[in-house]
Amino acid sequence: MRIIGAGSRPGRPHVDHDRVLTVPNVLTVLRFMGVPIFIWLVLARQEYGFAVLVLAIMAGTDWVDGYVARRFDQASKLGRVMDPIADRLALIAVAITLVIAGIVHWLYLAALVVPDAVLLVLTLSYFHGHPDLPVSLIGKIRTGLLLLGTPLLVLSRLDVPFADALFVAAWIVLGLGLTGHWIAAYNYFWAILRKGRMQSHHHDGGTA
Q1: How many CB atoms lie within 10 A of CB 138?
Q2: Exposure check for the chain: N or C terminus, fewer CB within 10 A?
Q3: Quick one: which of 118, 138, 139, 122 has its CA closest to 130?
Q4: What is the pLDDT of residues 32-58, one digit of tens each?
Q5: Where are the domains of the chain?
Q6: CATH of domain 23-207
Q7: What are the DSSP calls for 105-117, one per residue?
């Protein structure tokens, strides 16, 4: 069974509909609503076990909404924009929570935020909004690795067998995820520049 691109139907054209109320969009909203629950469990209750469960559900819905969108022709223009933004905000919010809880160093948060901040400034300067670029394969793998490594790291804080091994495994996965994060950001950086310059060129040519 395919993990990335699951639900794709070869031979059928991909169409982003204008619909707003779709199952994938609802799942994206529900996934993001898991963030405050995670924050409360970690910071207020120190219930790391339940926090891991919330992260697992969030990661699961990230895969399910993509599957449903492709398999049942429910891809939408809103979902194409909202899904990666929700993923990024959720990852950053979770990272901030882990920094406050003393589980990760602030450098981990910086490694997540700095590339996104650069891309945000570049995007706003060229498009004043979303650049509408397709999510890259590296970007999808990066998100999956970060969504896997984070619960492993939280799980290593529990009094469970092989906690040290979980800690090491978590940082291996997170390290790979952060590497993919920077590679994806580099690729998006140049993609935004190319698209922005093309739009500026077309605009200048049309008004000349």
Answers
A1: 18
A2: N
A3: 122
A4: 999 999 999 999 999 999 999 999 999
A5: 23-207
A6: 1.20.120.1760
A7: -HHHHHHHHHHHH
